[in-house]
Amino acid sequence: MAHVGFVGVGRMGANMARRLQDKGYRITAVHDRNQQAADELSRELGCEAVETPARVAELSEVVVTVVSDDAAMHDIYREGESNSLLAHAKGRLFINCATVSPDVHIATEQVVERHEGASLEACMASSITQARQGTLYLMCAGKESVFERARPLLEVMSARLRYIGRTGEAAKVKALVNMVMNCNTAALAEGLGLGAALGVDLTMLREVFSQTGAASRVLETDGEDMQARAHDCYFSAAHATKDSGIALGLAATVGLTLPLAEATHRQYQRLVAAGRGDLDKSAIAELTFKGRHQ
């Protein structure tokens, strides 16, 4: 089994590392901007909590990155920096799982290859629970030979594994997945919020939704939470905001206007501005239920 390191061990990264260790992979090193998170996971898994991405690459054959945004990806792959993953890129396989812009994945592949490593885009359409259980939905892009090299590890982490094509293509699909999911979430919040204001029994309403054209995956995962105001984080409102923004950026490049996606993005921006970005995306209901928001 390959020695695997992680850069980014928040909720998703930490559970992916646990899953791989359960299945016999040796987790060698973890790094996170939140040092406490890295320290706690390193004690649990018996690996090193290191101060730099470079040290993760030095100790590992495979490096899985799960960082927050485009800027974070640029930082960990910065050329000319001794602390960067590129300091020990030669011969390494980098699997990049964060939802970032397609252009960032393309630039990452190019810079890794200049340093004689290999890079694969592996976008996740799943939540924390699936990361721990090894049932992620993974959409991968890059050179097919690199995908095949990574396949044994990816299969341990996923229930569904799909190769999309050249680098950047999986990121486009992931942006569309999250854009539609976020629109569905906002629409569900409005439907339940209006139902509550009209005095409709929401448990009954959710059941009717599930049996009609109002049914959706979001209804299954978020409907009860919206009703109960239970917004423990599985996919944060801050990430929903970022991901809808990526999709709208892609729309701008091809001259499309997406009014529903734009309205949803504004709603999530409001939620983040209100200091609730760390809540689950279901917390958008706090903006639509009468009497919940200021």
Quickly count the domains. 2
Task: Compute the separation of the termini in Å.
Answer: 53 Å
Would you tell me the structural class of the helices and strands?
alpha/beta
Number of H- or I-type helical stretches: 12
Widest beta sheet: strand line-up? 3-2-1-4-5-6-7-8
CATH class bucket of the largest domain: Alpha Beta
Radius of gyration: 20 Å
Shape: globular
Q: How are helices and strands ordered from N to C?
A: EHEHEHEHEHEHEHEHHHHH
- CATH-level-4 superfamily name of the largest domain: NAD(P)-binding Rossmann-like Domain
Main beta-sheet strand count, sense and barrel state = 8 strands, mixed
Low-confidence stretches: none
How many strands?
8
Beta-strand percentage range: 5-15%
Instruction: State the helicity in percent bands.
Output: 40-55%
Second rung of CATH, namely the architecture of the largest domain: 3-Layer(aba) Sandwich
CATH topology of the largest domain: Rossmann fold
Describe it:
Helices cover about 50% and strands about 15% of the residues. It has 2 domains: about 5-165, NAD(P)-binding Rossmann-like Domain (Rossmann fold, 3-Layer(aba) Sandwich); about 170-285, N-(1-d-carboxylethyl)-l-norvaline Dehydrogenase, domain 2 (Orthogonal Bundle). Helix 2 (about 35-45) links the parallel strand 2 and strand 3 (about 50). Helix 11 (about 235-255) runs antiparallel to helix 12 (about 260-275). By secondary structure, it is of the alpha/beta class. It has an 8-stranded mixed sheet, with helices on both faces. The protein is globular, with a radius of gyration of 20 Å. The chain has 12 helices and 8 strands.
